[in-house]
Amino acid sequence: MAQAGVVLDKDSFNCSVCLDVLKDPVTIPCGHSYCSGCIQNYWDQDEYLGLFVCPQCRQNFNPRPELAKNTMLADVVETLKKSGLQEATTPANQSFAEADDVECDVCTGRKNKAVKSCLVCLASYCDVHVQPHYESAAFKKHKLVSATRKLQETICPRHNKLLDVYCRTDKLCICYLCWTDEHKEHDTVLAETETQEKQRQLSDMKQSSQLKIQQREKEAQELKQAIFSLTRSARAAAEESDVVFTELIRSMELKRFEVRELIKAQEKMVVSQAELLLDKIQKEINDLKKDEAELDKLSHTEDDVHFLQSFQSVRAPPVLSTLPLVNVDPNLTFGPVMTAVSEFKGLLEEVCQGGFVSIYERVRDVAIVAPPNPAAQIDTTHSGNTGSTLQMEATLVSPPPGLDQTLVSPLNPFLNPGPAVSTFAFSPFGTKLSSGSRHRHLQRRAHPRRK
């Protein structure tokens, strides 16, 4: 008997909806039996039509038949389960659901992994229990999707119907009854139609996004190349400028040595000339003193004859030689030389200042990212008769969004400009002395230029 039950199971004791052994079997007026939950869920989907159909013979019933448990069939199924029916009907290739898998809603005991979910039945099925949706004409209009846990989100909470209509006016999914009620005058389409339209828009957006990504990647590559080239060029320029300034320093050291030697040579020559003149004057003094001594001696001679005879040999006083013009100023110094050196210093400072301004401007012009507005304005002003002031003023502009907001000298192109306004004072040789909102000046003594 048990063996016969196993044979009959496939034809008589399976629910044609879930394809599993009948659970709480009920029989509808046409004579077919189903699981109580399966037939109730099946009819719930068509309740708004007012017609209730048998899934097998397609006979219509109106009103909805009352369901009563088929106790005899329930006893037979229970007896068959005890006699080994459950083992006979268990598929050989089971794929049990793991922790993160969607479980089959039909399987009893340990659940198999669901592969499809039906948006009409609102249930998920494994490979075995989904077969009726492929084979039976009763499920031909049912929509299968990949197994999901979000089936309840596809049901209207008000009417408990499938959300198969999209309201463009309110931008939400509604069911058929919502469409015939409060959304009657709205712009509505089938959810599937709207999905297809949104998919096309999404495809266009993805294509546009890909083009933008490609464009930005190309720009990023070009920017990297520009940074690499600029970095390499900056390193070479720094090394070459070091060579130039080293040569300039060496040249200035040579000039300093030449000026020192020139002063020493001039001192030696002038002192030598003065000493030669001093020796000549000293010799004349000695000769005059010698003649004076002889005259004094002769003036004390008492013998008249001897005096007269000696007087005949007395020479007339020598005529003093003409001496060159001698500067006898006790404060004689190299002051004019220092004046010339200071004047040279002033001229050199002005030349260096102009040169540094030119260098800074050219350095600042080297840029990868162009600023939105002119970044700086440079003014060079001079004071009155007492001196001159070299001042470089720069009005900073806000950098592009995302760049550093550090306040720095606008003449340094390797640092980003900040959003504030600041004035920097530089020494005549381009060295920054101070920074701030107030004007600070470096005063130097004015020297008259030589004609």
Automatic annotation (TrEMBL):
CDD domains registered for this protein in UniProt: Bbox2_TRIM16-like (cd19769)
Gene Ontology MF term list: zinc ion binding
Chain intervals with Basic residues compositional bias: 437-451
Chain spans, region Disordered: 432-451
Stretches assigned to coiled coil: 206-233, 271-301
This protein's GO CC annotations: cytoplasm
Translocase in keyword set: no
Pfam family, one: TRIM_CC
Entry keywords, A to Z: Coiled coil, Metal-binding, Zinc, Zinc-finger
InterPro entries cross-referenced by the UniProt entry: E3_ubiq-ligase_TRIM/RNF, TRIM8/14/16/25/29/45/65_CC, Znf_B-box, Znf_RING, Znf_RING/FYVE/PHD, Znf_RING_CS
Sequence ranges assigned to domain RING-type in this UniProt record: 15-58
Domain B box-type: 151-191
UniProt-listed SUPFAM superfamilies: B-box zinc-binding domain (SSF57845), RING/U-box (SSF57850)
The protein, known as: FinTRIM family, member 67
Biological source species: Mastacembelus armatus (zig-zag eel)
